[in-house]
Design goal:
mainly alpha, 80% helix
């Protein structure tokens, strides 16, 4: 919005709202602004990105993570076991 539009809106609100309603609106706008600040992520620097990639590769090399092929294989094995248990129960 342009500054002129916002100024017009402000002037309209000043002329129509009671002081209590203006305080309420100001509080609501301030709360909304704080919520936006909380959810506005700060961009990473290229150095931070390289560091995160290096840490992730090291964690993978240390066995802290598994690749998707292993994960899907384990999931299929688990689902097959559950299917066999259900078939036995029936």
């Amino acid at each position: 919005m342009s500054t002129a539009t916002l100024t017009g809106l402000r002037d309209y609100l000043y002329s129509t709202l009671s002081p209590t309603n203006m305080i309420w609106l100001g509080t609501q706008l301030a709360d909304y602004g704080r919520q936006l600040e909380k959810h506005n992520p700060v961009p990473y620097t290229i150095e931070e990105i390289h560091q995160m990639v290096a840490e992730g590769e090291q964690q993978f090399a240390d066995g802290q993570w598994q690749d998707s092929e292993d994960m899907f294989r384990e999931l299929e094995e688990e689902l097959a076991r559950e299917g066999q248990e259900i078939a036995k129960a029936v």
